[in-house]
Amino acid sequence: MIKFLKSIFEKLIEGTLFLSSTITTLAIVLIIIFLFKEGIGTFNQTPIEDGFSLVVNKNNPINELSAPEIKNIFDQNITNWKTVGGKNDSITLFNLDNIGEFYSDSAIGENFEFLPQCISDYTEKNPGVVAFVSTRYTEKGFTGKILTTPKVKVTEFISQKEWFPTAQPAAQLGVLPLILGTLWVSFGAILIALPLGLSTSIYMAEIASPKIRNILKPLIELLAGIPSVVYGFFGLVVIVPEIQKLFNLPVGETALAGSIVLAIMALPTIITISEDALRTTPKSMKEASLALGANKWQTIYRVVIPYSGSGITAATILGIGRAIGETMAVLMVTGNAAVIPHSFLEPVRTIPATIAAELGEAPQGGLHYKALFALGCILFIITMAINLIVGYISSKKKYNAK
Amino acid sequence: MKTKITAALFIAIVINLSAFTQNVVNIKIKGSDTVLPLSQKEAETFMKKNKTAKITVTGGGSGVGIAAFVDGSTDIAMSSRKMKMSEKMKMQDAGKAFKEVIIANDALSVIVNPANKVSQLTREQIEGIFTGKITNWKEVGGDDEKIVAYSRESSSGTFEFFKEHLLNNKNYGTAILMMPATGAVVQSVSQTKGAIGYVGFAYIEKNIKAIKISYDKGKTFIEPTVVNAKNKTYPVVRPLYYYYLTKDEAKVKTFVDYILSEEGQKVVNEVGYISLK
Fold it and tell me: How far apart are CA A238 and CA A347, in angstroms?
């Protein structure tokens, strides 16, 4: 009877374990599906806000304008239709929000009932006009020409260099500076954190006396518990001015500041995990090495590190993951200018910082909202690629060692 | 005897409750993060005076507040900008008449590092700096020093206001540094020699220098002070709005009137904005 109960109990535990792993997997799969579903939606939309269109005079030969062209026209950097392949005629801008400058309130009507006529009239009279208006006014009896804007393309999304998702009338969605900014900052962080973290963990696992280790380890683990905003503020108030002074820069908010802050944040992960891995090396192996006449350093280098290789790899992956995905601290110290970085001493804007700063205000379901999800997808792909590469390299190493 | 007392008590409670529910004013306010601290403070002082009033204030941004107002999920939309034409259209489509009230003013000032010898700029020069066409202080009469321009994030209403009023609606340059909070802008400008940024009046302190602005191509430069903002000589002033439905007027009137009263306007000054009178 007791045996029977025991076996039921065991089955129950087995079931619970199975269930929890299933739930975890499901949650991850669901998040990924959600992320990609929203992200891919970006490429079904045009850069012009829903319900609005760009209209020109009906004699204007232009039929289509790209997003960067629209931006340059409305920023008055392009002032002649010739530049975008049209006639030699200057461009007149018209925006619905300043219609009051051209027509009196009575002409528009108290309830805006004559607004469509006003817009139609204005586009008719001005041959060089380009107007940004709601599609409702261009439905009936409209005499101008409605321009088409091409949908956002994946290649443009990745290769264009300007990120102005809230620009009116056409959003500029070029994520290249953001991708490069993210990689730049994370690369710098790993460059700093990995050697520092590994040497600390080797010191703690092999060289330090138990007393020192007992003080060091909890201290380092404490680092992991500090909220990232605190790191960010520390970076902004301490690291940023120091970098500015040290390199005599006009501005201290740089990729380097971000890398340093991220390196400090990634250190506890790298140290604790790789130290645990190093300490799993069996005593017999170390003693065998020492008995063969190898000194302490040779034992660490030839026996301990190769043995705990997979643990160190895991530590590295988690460290990189922390660095790439970190938002708040980076948001505060890197300056967030969406320009392509050429050195560590320039401001950069990272993907997580962009998502954190903009998602709250992006209208749900709109192009900006979806573009931010697409950014999330890119981040996911980058992290996954790094994990796969690191996993591949470490598995190859093990094979060679055998 | 006991039952009689409980019955009496019960009746008293019921009467009290019904009296309570009749008087209670429950107002939901949503919108601009700029107006948020002001609305919170006003609601706090108002509720202290009127024990029956219950006011819930939430942020999210002007656009979010107005969207909620159109949906009918908030009683008052607070906004740091005037309602856009497209939003007015939506209200009209839904057949909802609404009222607009200006509750206070907010003024922005352009700030530089105190070590910077430039103390005045024209609007055109500021446009050049923030659109990335002017990159060195010597072009505007300062030292040979690279200009580092700080802005708020694009989600902020201040970002839009600055763009409309000082950049002539042009887009910011790509090299502009975007800071997540006004405090961060102040911190960065105070420690960067070539910095320029913009903040609300309430944030001006001795570590940063507010500069004079000219809107008439350099003829007159006006100092950003509360007095100049009130008499409208300082141009970078924006009204802060409340929007409510005409049919809700009876419900929200006591609160709106309180803000417009002398006592409410005193709170406006305390929070760091500019009172109407």
Answer: 17
Strands B195-200 and B148-152 turn out to be parallel
ipTM of the complex model: 0.71
Would an 8 Å CB–CB cutoff place A238 in contact with chain B? Answer: no
In a domain, A12, yes or no: no
Q: How many cross-chain Cβ pairs, A to B, lie less than 8 Å apart?
A: 96
Query: Is A95 a member of any domain?
Result: yes
Residues of B in contact with A71 (CB under 8 A): 171
Among B148, B154, B172, the residue with its CB nearest the CB of A358 is B154
Segment 147-206 of chain B within 8 Å of chain A by CB: 147-148, 153-156, 169-172, 174-180, 184, 187-188, 191-195
Residues 6+ apart with CB under 8 A from A169: A48, A49, A52, A54, A70, A74, A132
Q: For chain B, say whether A322 makes contact (Cβ under 8 Å).
A: no
The Cβ of residue A258 has, within 10 Å, a number of other Cβ atoms equal to 36
State the DSSP code for A148: B
Instruction: Report helix, strand or coil for B189.
Output: helix
CB contact under 8 A, B180 and A357: yes
Q: Does residue B197 contact residue B149 with C-beta atoms inside 8 Å? A: yes
Prediction pTM value? 0.77
Taking 90 as the threshold, does the pLDDT of residue B102 lie above it? yes
In a domain, A79, yes or no: yes
pLDDT at A61 (0 to 100)? 85
Neighbours of A165 (CB within 10 A): 21
A269 in the same domain as A329: yes
Domain region containing A231: 176-401
Q: Confidence band (pLDDT; 50, 70, 90) for A55?
A: confident
In this complex, which of A163, A336, A363 lies closest to B177 when CB atoms are compared?
A336
Structure token pair of residue B43: 């609601």
Q: What's the pLDDT tens digit per position in B179-229? A: 877 788 898 899 888 999 998 887 788 889 999 999 888 888 998 888 888
Write phi, then psi, for A269 (nearest 5 degrees): -60, -50
In this complex, is the C-beta atom of B89 within 8 Å of any C-beta atom belonging to chain A?
Answer: yes
Q: B113: alpha, beta or left, given left = phi > 0 and alpha = psi -120 to 50?
A: beta
**Spatial contact of B79 and B39, defined as CB atoms under 8 Å apart:** no
Read off the CATH number of the domain in which A192 is found. Answer: 1.10.3720.10
